[in-house]
Amino acid sequence: YDPTKWFIRTMSTLGLAYDLKTFPANEVEKGFIQMRMQELENKRTKLVFGTPVNKLPVYTEEEFLDQVKTYKKQWMVIEGFVYDVKPFFNDHPGGKALLKGGIGKDMTEAFNGGVYQHHNSARNLMNTSLRIGILQRL
Q1: Is the pLDDT of residue 101 over 90?
Q2: What keywords would UniProt list here (predicted)?
Q3: How far apart are the first and last CA of the chain?
Q4: Prediction pTM value
């Protein structure tokens, strides 16, 4: 709401203001978008996106498999990231068996469309609370 704009427009309608200039619609729209982007950025900074990628530990394939076999970690790999899926067993829509079948494996193909096409909400959940490392491929 811009009271000055409406005052000037009212004065123009009454004949008390004249030779008014308008700002290009493109510039007005850009300003609107810039303000909206700032609002979104303010909201984004308040959200938790998980550990930043550059702060995640890096595991070799050997270390990854050792954690799964020796220490019974419930880890899988998707798109080069290591996820600990144990906390999600009871909540996974496909059930525990589906997750257990992927332990110690690269499940990128299955995650990205093999049987299911996961949505951004699944990716956000994984990256926020399940992503624990990066798999270093040799």
Answers
A1: yes
A2: Oxidoreductase
A3: 59
A4: 0.73
